[in-house]
Amino acid sequence: MKNEAVQQNPTYLEEFKRKGYSRKDFLKFCTLMAAYLGLENSSVGQVVRAMSSKPRLPVIWLHFQECTCCSESFIRSSHPIVADVLLDQISLDYTETLMAASGFQAEEAMKNTMTKYKGEYILCVEGSVPTAADGVYCMIGGKTSLQILEEAAEGAKAIIAWGSCASNGCVQAARPNPTSATPIHKLVKGKPVIKVPGCPPIGEVMAGVIVHVVTFGRLPELDGLGRPKAFYSKRVHDTCYRRPYYDAGLYVESFDDDNAKKGYCLYKVGCKGPSTYNACAVTKWNNGTSFPIQSGHGCFGCSEENYWDNGRIYERASAFPGFGIESTADTVGKVALGVTAGALAAHAIMTNVRKKKLIRNLEKEGKESEHELKG
Amino acid sequence: MTTEKTTVHKLRRVYVWEKPVRLYHWLNAFVIIVLIATGFYIANPLAIQSGQEPSQRFVMGWVRLIHFIAAYVFFFNFLFRIYWGFAGNKYSNWKQFVPTSKKFFKEMWHVFKMDILMLRGKEHMSVGHNAMAGLIYFFTFIAFLVQCLTGFGLYASMSTSWWFPKMFAWVPYMFGGDIFLRQVHHWTMWFFILFAVVHVYLVFYHDYVEGRGEMSSMGGGWKFIEEDVFKHNKELPNAPKS
Ligand code: SF4
Ligand code: SF4
């Protein structure tokens, strides 16, 4: 059953108009979003229809252990409507960073949204939830993050985990994870969680996810890790413009060498593009200006789980667990090879000592047979 | 000088490794060498200088292609070997590798005492693998499996061709992503290298202390077994009952 309160909300188009955008701007925005979502041309109409007929969705946006880079990225997504309209008009009913209200007033607003739009609002979460020491590491208005999350999640239609913090813990969950920073999907049960990882995620990607939910009334198609396939099914490496250099075997060896000036592939200086699923090489950042690889730095792998612990930034090889941070699998392997060779040499010597009789008998038998044969 | 004659053994030719097993073995050896060599290059490509235009070059592309082709051969060869564990003779049977009886462990303990601790006592001589070797091969099969899963798991998302690699698309999710997956793939490779070194050494060793043609057996398939083994015709400790 649809919630009555939502139906009474103005549509997106109405909101756009009230904000002073022309119909042309509106159509541009819809087309852009359809393109980001990877929809066919013919589906633009669907987006337009949805945006002009569907009442705007109420959104609660929570902030826990995070640096607000996701919000920053969101409000800087290339089309002004994204920032202006989606953010203002999507009915961001509660977001600590951007709303005008504060203190009790703000908490009131959240409570109102939660009861008024029960079962209909989208819950966006930025940041991870620290569970160590009963959650004291992140408390807002006297409540722990976990309490706030659980309350808000209860009546949510769907949950969007913005950024790597909410999706997989990011830096605060890196070893030894002193605050037991925990990603959202591990805490909320029985509700769909869309992960939009990245540090931060690309603004257009964030907008695209919301537009998808609005247009189709359901969650976008997710991959096995819960990320929208439209944006996270390709590796940065597969869409990277330096890829021909990779295939040619031409690599930057150090950041100040000639190869770097020629724009060769950054694989050997630690680029994680080959293991990272994100839309950076296609959508790029800051109004499509550039992205890390274009500015000469390898991909960090910021949208991949555990990227802080899993790899070194400027090397492909990573530390072999349990052998100190300086040792890679190859150094451990070489040592193991040496030890094995030593053990085998010792074994060979011992064989000759301990099995002397056996070997001598075999030799004797063989020699006798040899003598018996005529040459 | 003593004129005492040593007992001269009468040896009988036994067909231990059938042709499919030998083909499997050498194909496997070849393909693993190719995979390791290309794998090292992919993990850390050499800095090659060349006057060629980049557009003329496809070094990494070729190396990866060879790695992938070798991977396919490796996978299907491995599948074939599993099949042969049910279709082949008793020395290639799966029961040689999987500890299914107490006898298996008893034999392993015996091999451990004789060949590793070098205690004195009755030597252990087996016709096919001994139980210890069998179990180690079992571990190699697990390593094969890990390498196939992680390798094709990494390959799945970059392949746009047919359904087969897509069957492995779930693997990265088990490992939380490609970064860690590729490390597991790299670590497991070292097991192959260490195994190969020990394996080659032990073949020399067995030939040396047993004198039954261990080395050449993977060529012609034959080992040469003493007549008295046939006289007693004792059931092999870990041979499947037939
Ligand atoms: S720079 Fe990185 S993402 Fe681009 S081709 Fe090289 S390794 Fe791949
Ligand atoms: S290029 Fe890599 S590190 Fe940079 S933003 Fe994209 S996914 Fe993150």
Explain the layout of strands and helices.
The complex is a heterodimer of chains A (375) and B (242).
Chain A: H1 4-7, H2 12-18, H3 23-36, H4 44-53, E1 59-63, H5 69-75, H6 80-89, E2 92-95, H7 103-116, E3 121-126, E4 129-130, E5 139-140, E6 143-144, H8 145-154, E7 156-162, H9 163-168, E8 181-182, E9 193-196, H10 203-216, H11 229-232, H12 236-239, H13 243-248, H14 258-262, H15 280-283, H16 307-310, H17 329-354, H18 356-372
Parallel strand pairs in A: 1-2, 1-3, 3-7, 7-9
Antiparallel strand pairs in A: 4-8, 5-6
Chain B: E1 11-15, H1 19-43, H2 59-87, H3 102-116, H4 131-156, H5 163-166, H6 171-174, H7 178-210, H8 214-220, E2 222-226, H9 227-232
Antiparallel strand pairs in B: 1-2
The complex binds iron/sulfur cluster (2 copies).
Residues 236-237, 240, 242-243, 246, 265-267, 271, 273-274, 293, 298-299 of chain A line the site of one iron/sulfur cluster (SF4).
Order of secondary-structure elements of chain A: HHHHEHHEHEEEEHEHEEHHHHHHHHH
SS field, number of helical segments of chain A: 18
Please report the first level of CATH classification, the CATH class of the largest domain in chain A: Alpha Beta
Number of strands of chain A: 9
**Element-level helix/strand string of chain B:** EHHHHHHHHEH
- The coarse silhouette of chain B is elongated
Discrete helix count of chain B: 9
Rg from Cα of chain A: 29 Å
- The level of helicity of chain B is 55-70%
| Largest interface (C-beta under 8 Å) | A-B, 60 and 48 residues
Profile the largest sheet of chain B.
Answer: 2 strands, antiparallel
Within CATH, the superfamily of chain B carries the name Transmembrane di-heme cytochromes, Chain C
Q: What's the CATH architecture name of the largest domain in chain A?
A: 3-Layer(aba) Sandwich
Q: Oligomerization state of this entry?
A: heterodimer
Q: Report, as a whole number of angstroms, the end-to-end distance of chain B.
A: 50 Å
Average the pLDDT over all residues of chain B and give the rounded result: 85
Mean pLDDT of chain A: 83
